[in-house]
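Per reviewer request, we include the raw input and output of the structure prediction for the construct analysed in the revised manuscript.
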Amino acid sequence: MARNANRAIFFVFLMVFATITPMIGSASAHSAIILTLDKPHIALQGGNSENITMTIKNNGSSIESYNINLDLDGLSDVWNITSVNQTVNGVLPTFEADTSFIVRLDIGAEPSDSGSFIINVSEQDSDIYSSITVYVTVSPSYASSISFNAINGPLQQMNAGTTANFTIDVSNDGNAPDSILLDVDAEPDLAAFWANFNNNTGNNSNNNNSNNNSNNNSGGGSNNTSNNSSTNVTVPTNVLMYGNSYIYTNNLDSMLEQIFNSVGEHNSTISNTAGSMKLPQHWDNINTSGNAWNTSLRDSGHDWDYVVLQDQSQTPGYQRSNQEWIDSKDSAVLIADAVEEENSEVILMMTWGRRSGDPSNPVRYSNFTNMQDELASGYTDFHDNMTNPSRDVWIAPVGLAFQNIYYSVLDSGSTPTLPGNTFYDLYDPDGSHPSMTGSYLAACVLYATITGESSIEVNDSISIAPNIKLELQQAADDTVFNQTSNIDYPWENGSQTTSMSQNRVVPPGWNLVFDDSQMSNVPAYSDVQTTLQVSVPSNAQPGFYGFNLFSASTNGNNSNSYTFVVEVLPENNLSFSFLDQTSDFIPGQSVTTSLQVTNTGNSELDLNWNLTLLSGPCTVSLIDASTTSFMPGDVDNIGFIAEVDSSADKSHVCELLLNGEGLHGDYAYDSEPFEFSINIDELIAFELGHTYLQAITLTPQNAESYQLRLYNNGSETIEFLLDFTTESPLTTNLLSSTNINVQSGQVGLWNLSTDVAQGYTGLISQNFSVTYQNITSNDMVTFDIQTVPGLAVSGPLDGRITTKPGSSVDVDLELTNSGTMDLNLTASVSGLPTGAEVMFSSIEVDLDAGNSETITMSVSMTSTAQSGSYPINVTYSSDEITKSLNLELQVAESVGLTVNSISNNIAAGPISEVSYTFEVTNLGSASDTFFVSLGFDDSNNASTWFDTTLSTTSINLDSSSTQAVTIQIRERLAGAPANGCDVDIVVTSSNDDTISSSISFKIIPIQASAQLTILADDNSALPGQSISGDVVVTNTGTGEDQFLLTTVGQDCGLSEIFTLPAGSSSQAFEWSCLIEETASAGLSSFNFRVTSNARSNYVLEQIEIFTVEPNWGSDGIVEITFGDSALSMASSGGSSTTVTVKNLANAPLSGSLNTLGSDISLFDITIRPMNSDTTSNEFSLANGQTTVFELLIDSRVTESESGNLRISASLVIDGVAYTEESTGLPVMIDGPELPPNGIELPFGVGFDEEQTISIMAGGWVFSLLLLLLMNFLRKRRRKAGAISATVEGLSEDDSEDSKKPIKKAKEKEVIPHQLKSNECRMTPDNKVTCPFCQAKLGVPRGSEPPFKFTCPQCDKKIRVVENQKF
């Protein structure tokens, strides 16, 4: 009892302390403001900024807000300090708050501008404040640059063998004085400078540790170039491009090929393009056999070094979830696979943003820079997807080169998207497709990407102004070599050193010298000037020569380069010669000839030619009026056509003049005119011919006469000789003189005759020729040889044909066409006796001239034909000719027979006999008796298994008569071969025992087989019902059989025995089968069986499928029960129970559970399968199967409520939907015990919260004093009672036993149960505290510890144990 009182006192103290704690927080106290900085000292260079974070700690006892102000007195104006927040509000005691300051330093600041400023922080409601100082320092920067102070800037023109001086501006771009070193095509030696400086001064500069990075992006660019004439760049042999109009506009592939050819040996660059083509379309073409895209990639004549891919202009920048982007990415990977199979590598040509963005995508592509950023990111993602450990894929950053020029224009103060600048001019008027300069920029980027060489050193002839071309080349080089260190290129080695960073040697003979290579103590942000002397060697080839002018900061230990280009101007000269004077220039004819031109100058030329006739009877025209790429020392032949007038003679001369206008790039050149002459030669022209438009008709042995003509079209009278050779079968004779004289413009005649030999037909030609001074004219006369008929017929040598009745004989007849005419012949026969018939292998014969053919004549005699000798006549005739052959037909007596049957096998079995029938026919010309016998195979004797009986063994037949004979067969013993036993039937003539005929047949043991046809009256029924119908058996075996018909495993009232011939069917037998009461719904079957008597091993079983219909009792389809009869929970917690669903139907079902009830809005309810973390209310149950769900219920309300929940099951059985519901589940919610917000008493008396708390505190003090008083009084009463009991005991207990000391009962020691991590005890109000998440939870009503349940807050398993009593 004392222990319980102590506990009560301790509990009262705790309650009093909890009551008065809020009252303590209303007090306040003073404290300091503690300020700290993350960066108390900042060092910046001009144009940069940095953020400072200041932490304010509230050391006071109340929530404070602070004002922040800056004290910038004494700080240089180049510093801009901005406070992100002017106030900081609501900082709790002992808590901290952060605020930020932005420190910016203007461009042009110098180290002397360093200083400090003060940050003041004060409380808003008092005068308390704190300060902290920030120190700012201007870091020294060192940089230098070079620029040209001359007309044309860094591009200068000079002649070979000359010297020029140029003024150079040297700038100190740093914020401190510096000394600047200058050099050409090599970075200045800063180490040597400082070594020399240390030797002279004895100390080191304190700036040696400054920025050591080289800045290669200023002035004219950061390019190391050399004389193009001495450049031998390794370029790819073959490049293949796939793209669209961005490539074929301005022929980007041709541009790139020309650039390659200007610096090295390149085979070809070709492209496959079509408008708006995307990568998926390219892949479809590449993957289609025979498509040009496919054949070009796999062209055996080209080994592609690189394959360039360019996608549609918008797609790469789309979102990565866009299907078009995904399709392009997937196609790019597939194309990379195909390219890798060809041992080539892919280069992605990154395209450019549209000049003003894409109006069709105003959000994503609002302007050029946004669109370019998206495209660059997209092509990078393409690259990452295409690259794998065994394959490199490269990017040519063309779009970034466009962006480079964009920002250059922007930095110059111009607006890139307005006309009048280089960026604007990169586009066609549509703002999307490239202009000539845009395509050239793309070609330069591709060149630098592939070779790693500067595009400035190329010497192409693409027609673009030199200063613009240089700017584009510099932008391409700067993009590839300086601005894209994040992109890998094919030419990079392991150290990532590019060809642009290598020092190069000035070409031999050139001399570039600075007057002063060291500019000392140049003030910050100032310029000085020096002179660069340039000497060009006399043998320098025309073209562009690039040099890097380097400036190096000695204090910053860094260098910068500026590209300087010298254009060596060309000196042109040509020499001419006409070397074709010996050719024949004949009146009336045209002659193709040429002039030889040699380039004796020092530059390549493109020339246009003009050829003029000065005098003479000629007309001239150039074949090719231009010569391109005419290199120094090259020789070219300028072809032209000279046509001499037909009236000219040998005394005439034609005078000609050739002029040439040269052009290469922007250089023009007019050659010295070249005059030359052509001498006219004699005209020799004649022609041999005739006037016959068609072939001359010629009959063999009947000569025809005709004429030949000679036409003299020359200028002189000439004697002509006719020449010909007579060849078989023609015979040609000249009827006039062989030689004839023909004057100019006249015609001469020859008379001839020609004959032909027999046997020839068709067209045959005779050739003639006339030759004069090695000129020959030929003619040919064609003769049409007429045809003539001819025919010969031959047969047997003795002219006789021998046969007999019932026989036939073949005779060969030989037909020969001895003429020259093709014949269509028809055969006929006369004189045949009765019973004779003649057949020809061909009645009608097409026999070509000169050919022979053998015809077979078959003579057949009937068995009744009369013997004797008969003359016959065989005739072949056509419209042109008829020929006959006389023969003698001799017919003798005959003996013959034949045996036939309609079948060659028969099936026999043990049930009954079968009959095999055959026929015997007398084919002889007289009556005859025939003997019949059977023969058996020794190895497979049919008599072993079968009994055979002939109906007769002899037959007497008249000529041509027939009689049938039967054999009775029955199986005696089973086991005969399945393929049967052979039996021979032999019939022999008694008139001539050498004449016989036989046939064979097989006796095959019957094969048992049957077919069941089951007809049911209904195909479904409920359990306990019957299904009935009819069944028919068909004998599908090879013989008669006896069958037994029954059912298997179930008595359907069917057991029948019957005999059926082969192929026949039984009557319809009735059957009726009962379905078991316990049958499950679904498909089931009855089994029918047929057994053969002839073949006991033959059994046929067939099932009849039926449907057991779904069925259930009055208890419904499913039974839904709860694991608890009722639930209770706290308003801040939840509870759980189980829901069991049992299938009461005879069919499987599926369904889902849902909650019902008017009070469902009070709860958050989750249904999930038992022992599963996945929420699901669906189930599938077989017959009688049960499933258990866990029902988790959380309270949605904060006050006491009650509700009744039901579970609804939506069911589907065999496609039909049903609904079942459970009984109700009462659920009680216990609301929390809310603290009072003041007290209201009757009669309008009330107290606010503060008064209530004071009253409560007084009440607790009073209760405490009352408990102390009660405890004190209880102890006094207990002590007095003990004394009284002792006195009474001593007076009443007189016995000896009463004198023994009273033993105190030993109390049983109770060992407290130690709670485990998942255990808790239940409070008297039936609540528990979760040991995992500390949530206070209600438990199901009626639950007695120990038991388990799941916490609805943290989903952990909790074990509730018994409360121990002490």
